[in-house]
Structures are given as structure tokens and as C-alpha cells.
Amino acid sequence: MKAITIIQPWATLIAIGAKHFETRSWATKHRGPLAIHAGKKVDREACEREPIKSTLAEYGYTADELPTGAVVAIAELTECWSVSRCLRGDIILERDGGNEMREDSIGKREEAFGYYDDGRYAWELTDVKQLPVPIPAKGQQGLWNWQPRGREA
């Protein structure tokens, strides 16, 4: 199964279903299951900013309680959107290789959970399942292969 390492608190925001797009500087052609791996780094400043702080608190998390160095969720990567901004500053998502536009999909809260700037990509994550217990794993840069043990998949 493909996996991606994401620093905290963003990995947990995905796992709890609050963050639906992972923004990256690069596109991917991968579609299908994707393991969400929480890296060892925690951005403590981000954990104190709203709406991140209150969203984490709603699920009982603080910066000190975020899992690290472990797979925390399994999601379906369903689409990779090109990101641009119109003159008003609204985010526009365009399907890679197509003309289909999607404008109103990013609310202010979702925007606060990612980096939506011209030339970036928004990986759409659906059917996210948070693992009941994070599974320790060593992360890597880029997409990497993770071999789930038994019933975790």
C-alpha cells in the first residue's frame, strides 16, 4: 500500500476527518488506498493557531498528545487537483489533465489546514478511517510502500 508521511498536526487532522485535502508542491498519478503516516515532527506553533487548536481539542488532542512515527489512518486518494487563485483570491481547483473546475470545495477551515497557492496541488482524500491504535512505522519522503500487518489494512 502506498503511504505518505505528513508532519503533525496535519496527519491527525486528516485522521479525524477534519482535513480533506493534502496540499503538496508535486502532483501524483496514484489513486486508491493511501496510508497516512504521522512523521516524528510536531509543528507546535501550528497546534496553537485557530482553527487547528480548537479542532484538535474537539477530539481530545493537544500538541503533546499527537501520535508520531506511526500510521494513523487509511484514506482513499481520489483526485489530484491543480491549485490556483482567481483575482478575488478564491481558490480554484482544476483536474490535472482536464478542464473541469471546482471552486467552492475549499471552505475557510479547510483552507487554514493547507497551503493553497498558485502552482501547488491538492490531493483529495475520501473514506478516511482512523486507526484505533497508531501503528509504528518509519516514514520516508514522497510516496512510499507500507506493508500493513494483517487486519490493519
TrEMBL record:
InterPro entries: ASCH_domain, PUA-like_sf
CDD domains named among the record's database cross-references: ASCH_ASC-1_like
Protein name (record): ASCH domain-containing protein
Organism: Paenibacillus melissococcoides
Start and end residues of each ASCH domain: 5-80
Transmembrane intervals: none
